[in-house]
Amino acid sequence: MATWTPQPAALNEILETIRESTNTQNKVQRAITHKLNSFTRAPDYIAYLAYILVGLPQENEQIRTIAGYLLKNNSRSILSASVDVIQYVKTAVLQALYDTSPLIRNAAAQDIVAFLGVIEPKNWPDCLQQLVNMLESPDLSQQVAAFGVFERACEDFPRKLDVEMNGTRPLDFMIPKFLQLSEHPEPKMRSHAVACLSYFVPVNSQSLFAHIDAFIACLFKRASDEDPSVRRHVCQALVLLLAARPEKLMPEMSNVSEYMLYSTKDKDEGVALEACEFWLTFAEDPDLAPYLHPLLARVSPVLLDCMIYGEEDLMWLDGEADDAAVPDKDTDIKPRHYGGKTHGLEREAPANGADELKRGAYGEETLDDEDDDDDYGLDDDEFADEMSTEWNLRKCAAAALDVLAVRFGPELMNVLLPHLKNKLWSSEWLERESGILALGAMAEGCIDAIEPHLTTLIPYLINTLNDPKPLVRSITCWTLGRYASWCTQPISDEHKNQFFVPTMEGLLRMVLDDNKRVQEAGCSAFATLEEDAGPELVPYLEPVLRNLVFAFGKYQHKNILILYDAVGTLADAVGRALQNSVYVEILMPPLTERWAKLGDNDEDLIPLLECLASVTIAMGSAFGPYAGPIFQRCVNLVHSSLLQYQAYQQNPDLDEPDKSFLVVSLDLLSGLAQGMGNGLEPLIAQTQPDLLALLTVCLKHPQAPVRQSAYALVGDLAMGTFGLLRPHLAGIVEELIQQLDPEPKVEFISACNNAAWSVGEVALRYGPNEPEFQRWVVPLISRLIPILLHPKAPRSLHENAAVSIGRIGLMHPALVAPHLPEFAQSWCQALYEIRDNEEKDSAFRGLCTLVQTNPAGITKSLLWFCNAIVRWNQPSPELNQMFQQLLSGFKNHDVAGWQAQVATFPPIIQERLATRYGV
Prior knowledge:
By secondary structure, this protein is mostly helical. The chain is built from 50 helices and 2 strands. The protein has a two-stranded antiparallel ribbon. A hairpin with a 5-residue loop joins strand 1 (357-359) and strand 2. Helix 19 (296-306) packs antiparallel against helix 21 and helix 25 runs antiparallel to helix 26. It is globular. It starts with 7 loop residues before the first helix and ends with a helix.
């Protein structure tokens, strides 16, 4: 052993504290945890833990094991330890791997993996050598202990193992060793061997790929292994190969697919789940579609069968009870993440009517990313609320069916329809439930093929909301939510009365169900319906609000948070219709009652603030009677959050404060500014501390979501309370200029977006040729133009930069017009698809003013300019007149030249120019 030795007094203190930690009383536990944390400051604490683990064989096994786990948790301390301590700890944990106790060996294995991850295998070659030697030991327990370390290390940091050490690559030796051990008589060893090999597939390890054929041969050999753990790792390896090296599997695809179909039906759910992942991975790769297509008729019914709840699921779910009165446990409530709102512009719907908002596999909405058409938003988290909290076979099968539907659409529908009918009309409730889940999973991809059947299916689903089984009612809610956009189409009164109204009424009943799971599904689906229905909901607002308000009195903790979301979404959907005093009197008392009950540190205040931000915008001036105390509390929350952050910056030992309170308080202040306009001025003027002074601090906050919400508030205050904002703008605009980055990091994009937008709002409020703003025009334009021209900037950033350039140009044309040739084409490309609105109108009036000031600046971009003009549906009279004057001016200046140029335009542009503007 190394030269380090423990001091008896220190050893006894640590030992005694660990013994006390086995006391289960909460108060004692907290004190012990605090004391253990205090030991971490001692430079040789990890050596004491290693000594207790290995050097005190007479000590209680539980105490030694706890020391081992504490050692793992403090593994990073080895980076700052002395040479003696490092050497002792390394030697001790390797020695503990030979202990006779499985508990001690397991703790030592976790310690070794943790230390390898921290100091990296290349800096501890003795460890790898010893582990390889142990694999060859005649003692099976030593072989298994060593392989357990290898499996965890290969899974956690394969790249750190795939390196050169002292001129050789250990993996060049280890991979053949693992292949050899895949034949071991002990199942656990075979399982470890296949697992270790598979983890090097995603990192494209050359050491593995040098033996790729032997690896695939090994997988085929182990495919029929008697041990389910081995078969599970074989399936996992085939999934990883399909993702990384599909060409290696294609020659054997008929055998592989047969095996995976067989394994998807394996009695062991772990094997079936890994095999099911194969179909999800297969479907997600568009290049593999031709290979998957012939298998559709066989794969899809198997997936359908996998979606039936298993006995373990049903025991876990305990979904039978009317449990609405049972309080939630804290563990029922998952942490939520709150980010500030981003200012964006609505685009015209694509010509084919496709919806830009795509739904993830379980109802989460994911904004379409134009750069990645094959990203279906399939995040494991999206499935968590539909079934149990863990990823399982049912969820994986549903996700695979969702992606298959998007990939193959009507073809999937054709092969699956007879099986789906059998499920939906089965006498067994579990079969029916799985059919309804499948119907929802297919909603996005198969909508065209399913649409003719919806006149039958929607009434079927509405009727199924009466099913006595809560699990059937809850999945029916979710599936109805998936078809909400079809139900809410304003096609005819008959469609509305037959589909929209019964769906709305059915989901509202489920919102008030006596089962918490059904309430949750009903409330979430109703929020989706609200989003899709929008103003169509206005005639039904009173009964809708009364139902939602009744739910406030009925719901337990978890569902209240979902209810806030439904109320906020309703406000966004119906907008200023919510100003009606009847609706205000229904909705505001329960919201203000909850507001009064919640303390400033209560996390439930966060979703309530978020909900109120939407409500204030919708209610507008009708919110006035409630605005004073809410405004003051938001300002207090901003102030206290900034003080907490300041204290944290001065003392990094403190926990970093949660930014969510600050972000949602700023967002609610934005909502008040949007809703009440200049009605907010008296509150801003008389409230202490001064909101505008606090806002200037928020603009410099290190956390991007805080800056994002602060810049949104700048723009919203500029619109309604510019007089009060103006004295603070010198400091604010300087910060804005710094925030405008042509290539922001991903986490800064939304802050940059809101900064770009708020610049335009401020410029408009200053007015034409205002000297105070003029000094900022060139610095701002020199930042906004590179954003507009940057090919990799997100589309929303291009749009907000273009709008602000237009608005600054409208106010200060002489300073901006010389730059017109530089950005004209990109400007027109950024905004021609945006829906008509006031923002777009002011931006285009700015562009027209720049063209009037510098007509030569548009010459090279004339086609794009004309295209952007004719894409307007209803420009304002002022803007339409500007278009007419400019186009007529171009034509009259050089009739022959104009006609020759227009003749090269696409026919639709020529036709609209002639029809609308006579040019």
